[in-house]
User: Which sequence fits this backbone?
């Protein structure tokens, strides 16, 4: 049998089918599966919305409104817009707005912390100044 294969000659009209799938068929199936994945609906960004709600809640508990009211207001507005985007089924926009709301609330909290730290620093400087004045008035007291 091996001799027959070695001596066999193929004619130009001989065709071989190596598989039942053609390249265009495989390509068509790949495109169809990509379209199905692309058309699938994006789930609502519940994790991002919850994170924004928590961040805003922390900011409100810390009484941020006294120090960073614009940032806290922006966070609330963006959270409301994120919820509206979910209703409109625009999940990408909802996710982006919820993430921005959480960041704005975190910024407001950070500004509060910075303001409190500045207040403490100013008080310490004032106390140090008073101590220096006392030391200059009474240099020999032990």
Assistant:
């Amino acid at each position: 049998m091996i001799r027959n294969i070695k001596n066999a000659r193929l004619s130009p009209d001989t065709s071989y089918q190596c598989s039942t799938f053609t390249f265009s068929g495989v390509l068509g199936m790949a495109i169809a599966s990509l379209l199905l994945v692309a058309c699938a609906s994006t789930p609502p960004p519940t994790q991002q919305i919850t994170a924004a709600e928590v961040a805003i809640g922390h900011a409100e508990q810390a009484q941020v409104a006294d120090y960073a009211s614009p940032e806290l207001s922006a966070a609330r507005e963006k959270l409301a817009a994120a919820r509206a985007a979910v209703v409109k089924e625009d999940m990408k926009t909802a996710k982006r707005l919820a993430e921005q709301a959480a960041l704005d609330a975190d910024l407001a909290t950070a500004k509060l912390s910075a303001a409190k730290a500045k207040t403490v620093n100013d008080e310490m400087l004032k106390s140090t100044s008073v101590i220096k004045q006392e030391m200059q008035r009474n240099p020999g007291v032990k």
